[in-house]
Design brief:
The complex is a heterotrimer of chains A (241), B (397) and C (396). Chain A has 241 residues and is an alpha/beta fold. Chain A is built from six helices and ten strands; from the N terminus they run βββαββαβαααβαβββ. In chain A, strands 6-7-8-3-9-10 form a six-stranded mixed beta sheet. In chain A, β4 and β5 form a beta hairpin. Chain B is of the alpha+beta class and 397 residues long. In chain C, the strands form six sheets. Chain C has a six-stranded antiparallel β-barrel with strand order 3-12-15-14-13-16. In chain C, α2 runs antiparallel to α3. Chain C has three helices and 24 strands. With 396 residues, chain C is of the alpha+beta class. Classes of the chains: A alpha/beta (241), B alpha+beta (397), C alpha+beta (396). Chains in contact: A-B, A-C, B-C.
């Protein structure tokens, strides 16, 4: 089991602001947001639609440029009033793992290659990338479907493969956007359990954006976001029920 | 690194191959059109090569004998033989006419030739050369005659004794070789009804039908039904002599026109085929544009079908270059399939064309480069669309 | 399309791709300019060759007569028609004598008149002779009397002069008789000439034959030399054959020939070269030979076209190749010989050619040499070749 920890303090966001537009029509989607997530921690980000949680994800995922603030991912300062990284695509590939509402697996790649894709893009030899992929698939108990195409898998299996994909390049950070939205409570809790397990195992800092009532009690720590501002709150931490 | 383009193609290979097949047929049509043009040029070159001549002597101020009609006396060749540097000179006649076999007739160019001299067919593919001085013929295989057939040209029947290949006129009509005296008669003598009416007309003319001069009418009728003209004299220049010098001599002293090989090529290709080649050129251009449009459309549609995957790929960390290269590879792959299918299709159906279709290797290589270039260009539309995809669309809401 | 195993799908597709590529390469090598040239090969043989000369001719009558008047006139009667057989001397036609009969009568009358002039001249001679005798007798009597002195000398002279003038009258009468005789001859000759002219108006057959055309009817005017009838000797029909000058080597009188008439193309007739014209046609460059029939067929018509094959003596045991193997590169004919799979153009000298296309080779090849017979394209020394049994499919 690989427990290599990328050095650093997980996620740290300080004073992050994002303004869309200019002048009188300007909208402040994020106003001075502060967040911290430790390696191995799974933190929830809860808020209604329009609250700015998507914007925050976009800033964290280096898809949008924040207006102001500081962001540190895995110990590396990536944004300080401006991007400190030259190639954002590489940042997303190597340092951030994404889990989406739907598995969004590449339909023309088999399960192993879906997971091995990112390491291959990062320059790893195919064999090494695939063995890493198999490791993850085994850890997620879906290795028996290693050669299948995504269309042949059940929803749950696809979800687990997508989690493996997010972990493939050993990123220090994982951003999960409503990963349990389409699932029933049993499956949703199962996904949360896996996330917690992976976080601990690989010491990854995970932010889960959600408004799913079923899983909110599982978080030990929560951030509420409303009108672009976050409030930290202790969660119930009721995972193993 | 795996090939994303390859995986995508393998995943939907049926659609891809079918599209390649369709594109291939279109490209095959393009190759065939180019082959038609090359075939026309080759027909002209073969016509010049197979005559075995270095010079074509024709009527002054004409561009004959192929591009224009030319008529010279059949004893002019004796004068030409006297020009220094001339090794052989032979009379030839050319006339495109209907040749009949059984109940069907075909259009052929009837060539009057002298055995052993320039103008006779250079090689045979069946049968033998004529041994008689009249009423034996050698035909090109494109006439679909066989050795032993009896064919009818004007007033006489000829036995086909030999077959040749690639002996065609510049217009693509197959050639039938008959002895020159028979050809002169065929060019000139009409059918029985016409001859009878011509005789009657002469008999009613008091200047020609004089009762005080017995034998005059017969003599006039005889002279009206004899032909002492040929279309050209083919000249072979002696070894080591300058063809142009001999041509100049003939032009200056014999008051005839003499064309060298280079000049005949120019006449045939630049003048005779010029209009047809422009037609074909335009057609080729249109085909290329259509093919490019089809490739662009297909690749664009294929890309649009993958928009979500592209967004996800971009988001999880795939460079724009990787995505663009995937699309380009697919376009090139489509082009490669189209090229191979097109070349095979063109080779398969080319022999079925009534005229000669020549598919040159050089054209195939050029075609490959053009197809690849066209596909690359056509893919830019899809690549633009792919690059504009916002990765944020993968993250809903 | 989904398969249970990705591997097999890839293998399948790779197979299809490979097949396409192989088809492509195969096509490129078999067709188009890269393909080898297909040829057929034959061997030079030793054998006999029967050279033949070919010509076309028209059936003509050797003897052909144009029957017509020697002076312009009008046709009075035509006694025979087309197809009639005539014997020598038979009357065929008659021209209108016009005034010739009257002239004949007048000639006759002139001769009769001349004859009577002769008779009168003879009578005058008798008369002159009698006068002379009398004058001579008187003259001698008076001479005697004068000598005796019974009459004066002038009387004797006068009587002598009478005698002399009677002598002269006799001479004159003699010459009158001579001229009258000449007159008779002249007039007789004129009468004969008129008679001949009259006879000329009767057109007679000069020899036995058949009438081939009747060109003028009674009443038509013809000029001298124009034909009224044409005759032909049907036993003298032969074929006037024209042979190309450059393919008439060895032609001589007496050679056997086969004549194929247009009207009976399937049954050739035997014949031989009866006469070779000493004057050839320089415009059409043909020699003319007259070929007679061994047994002239019935119903032969003059003017019919015929094809004539003159057979030259058989040549034994010569090297032969089919004439399709001969090519003219430059002035010299030659063949493409296959030496251990390589092409080489060998110049040959040729002799005679048989009707079936076998040509005698006098120099350049030996029996058994392999030569290229048919080829798909013009060959050159470095051409890639492929030997095939035949180049054209047999007709269905």
């Amino acid at each position: 089991m690989d427990t290599t920890v990328r050095a650093g303090v997980g996620i740290r966001i300080e004073g992050l602001s994002k303004r869309y537009g200019e002048g009188a029509a300007a909208v402040d989607a994020l106003k001075d947001v502060n967040m911290r997530v430790a390696p191995g921690e799974v933190v929830g980000l809860i808020g209604p639609s329009g609250s700015g949680k998507t914007t925050l994800l976009k800033c964290l995922g280096a898809i949008t440029t924040p207006t102001r603030g500081r962001m540190t991912l895995g110990g590396e300062l990536i944004f300080d009033q401006g991007w400190k990284i030259s190639d954002l695509t590489v940042l997303r590939r190597d340092r951030i793992g994404f889990i989406f509402q739907a598995p969004y697996l590449i339909p023309f790649l088999d399960v192993t290659d879906n997971v091995a894709l990112l390491p291959m893009l990062a320059g790893q030899p195919n064999a090494a990338a695939r063995s890493r992929a198999l490791e993850l698939l085994q850890a997620l108990d879906v290795a028996h479907r290693a050669g299948a195409l995504p269309s042949e898998l059940s929803g749950g299996e696809q979800q687990r493969v997508s989690i493996a994909r997010a972990l493939a390049n050993k990123p220090p950070v994982i951003l999960a956007d409503e990963p349990t939205a389409p699932l029933d409570s049993e499956r949703a809790l199962a996904v949360m359990r896996i996330l917690h397990q992976m976080a601990t195992q690989y010491q990854t800092a995970i932010i889960v954006v959600t408004h799913d009532e079923k899983i909110i009690p599982t978080f030990k720590r929560l951030y509420h976001i409303r009108d672009g501002q976050t409030i930290e709150e202790a969660g119930q931490g009721r995972l193993l029920e | 690194m795996i090939s994303l383009a390859g995986r995508d193609i393998l995943h939907g290979w049926g659609k891809f191959v079918l599209t390649g097949l369709g594109l291939g047929l279109l490209i095959g049509v393009t190759f065939t059109m180019a082959g038609v043009y090359r075939g026309m040029v080759d027909d002209a070159m073969v016509l010049l090569n197979n005559s075995g001549a270095d010079l074509w002597v024709v009527q002054k101020d004409t561009q004959g004998p192929y591009a224009e009609s030319s008529s010279i006396h059949d004893d002019v060749y004796r004068n030409i033989l006297g020009v220094p540097g001339v090794a052989q000179a032979a009379n030839v006649t050319y006339l495109t006419m209907q040749v009949r076999r059984g109940n069907t007739d075909i259009r052929a160019m009837v060539v009057g030739f002298e055995p052993g001299l320039p103008g006779e067919p250079a090689y045979l593919v069946a049968g033998r050369r004529p041994t008689r001085s009249h009423y034996e013929a050698v035909a090109d295989v494109m006439t679909h005659f066989s050795v032993g057939d009896r064919i009818r040209i004007r007033r006489h029947e000829y036995a086909v004794v030999g077959l040749t290949r690639r002996m065609v006129s510049s217009g693509g009509d197959p050639m039938v070789f008959i002895p020159i005296k028979d050809a002169q008669e065929a060019q000139f003598l009409k059918d029985n009804d016409a001859i009878v009416s011509e005789r009657a007309r002469t008999a009613t003319n008091p200047a020609l039908n004089r009762p005080g001069v017995p034998g005059l009418l017969e003599a006039i009728n005889a002279s009206q039904t004899s032909n002492h003209n040929v279309n050209a004299v083919l000249v072979r220049v002696a070894e080591g002599r300058s063809v142009e010098a001999v041509a100049q001599d003939i032009r200056r002293w014999k008051h005839l026109q003499a064309f060298t090989r280079v000049q005949m090529e120019d006449i045939l290709i630049a003048k005779l085929i010029a209009t047809a080649s422009k037609q074909i050129g335009m057609f080729l251009a249109i085909l290329m544009v259509v093919s490019a449009a089809i490739v662009a459309f297909i690749i664009y549609t294929m890309t649009l079908g993958k928009i979500r995957e592209i967004a996800v790929l971009k988001l999880i960390g795939t460079h724009d270059l990787t995505i663009a290269s995937m699309i380009l590879q697919q376009a090139l792959g489509l082009g490669a399939i189209g090229f191979v299918v097109g070349r095979i299709a063109a080779s398969v159906w080319a022999p079925m064309f009534p005229k000669y279709v020549l598919l040159e290797t050089g054209d195939a290589v050029l075609g490959f480069a053009v197809v690849m270039g066209m596909c690359a260009l056509a893919s830019t539309l899809a690549i633009r669309a792919a690059l504009r995809v916002d990765p944020a669309t993968a993250i809903g809401g | 399309m989904k398969f249970a195993f990705t591997v097999s799908r890839k293998v399948w597709l790779a197979g299809v791709g490979l097949a396409l590529l192989l088809a492509f390469v195969w096509l490129a090598s078999r067709t188009g300019p890269l393909a080898p040239i297909r040829i057929t090969v034959t061997r030079a043989t030793r054998g006999d060759v029967q050279p033949t000369l070919f010509g076309i001719g028209t059936v003509q009558a050797r003897r052909d007569y144009l029957i017509g008047p020697t002076v312009a006139g009008r046709v009075k009667r035509v006694l025979v028609d087309v197809g009639d057989a005539v014997v020598p001397g038979q009357a065929l036609a008659e021209m209108d004598p016009v005034d010739l009969d009257a002239r004949l009568e007048s000639a006759d009358a002139a001769v009769a008149r001349a004859r009577s002039a002769v008779a009168s001249a003879e009578a005058q001679i008798g008369d002159a002779r009698a006068r002379l005798a009398l004058a001579a007798a008187e003259a001698s009597r008076y001479q005697a009397l004068g000598a005796q002195g019974f009459v004066g000398p002038s009387v004797v002279d006068a009587k002598r002069q009478l005698e002399q003038s009677a002598q002269a009258q006799l001479v004159a009468a003699d010459s009158a008789l001579a001229s009258a005789s000449h007159d008779v001859s002249r007039l007789q000759a004129e009468r004969a000439a008129a008679g001949q002219q009259r006879a000329n108006l009767r057109l007679l057959a000069p020899a036995a034959g058949v009438v081939t055309s009747r060109d003028a009817e009674p009443g038509s005017t013809v000029v001298a030399g124009q034909a009224v009838l044409r005759l032909m000797d049907p036993t003298s029909l032969w074929v006037s054959t024209r042979l190309d000058q450059n393919r008439a080597a060895g032609l001589r009188e007496g050679l056997p020939a086969r004549v194929t008439l247009r009207s009976s193309a399937t049954t050739p007739l035997a014949g031989s070269v009866a006469r070779l014209e000493r004057v050839s046609d320089s415009v059409t460059e043909e020699r003319i030979a007259q070929v007679s029939f061994a047994a002239p067929p019935a119903g032969l018509s003059a003017g019919e076209m015929a094809e004539v094959l003159v057979q030259l003596p058989l040549l034994h045991d010569v090297v032969l190749i089919p004439n399709a193997a001969l090519h003219h590169r430059g002035a010299q004919p030659g063949v493409w010989r296959l030496d251990a799979g390589k092409l080489r153009f060998v110049q040959v000298k040729t002799g005679v050619e048989g009707q079936d296309g076998l040509v005698q080779v006098t120099e350049g090849l030996a029996a058994g040499d392999a030569v290229v017979l048919y080829s798909e394209r013009e060959l050159s020394a470095g051409s890639r070749i492929k030997v095939a049994p035949t180049l054209v499919e047999a007709a269905p």
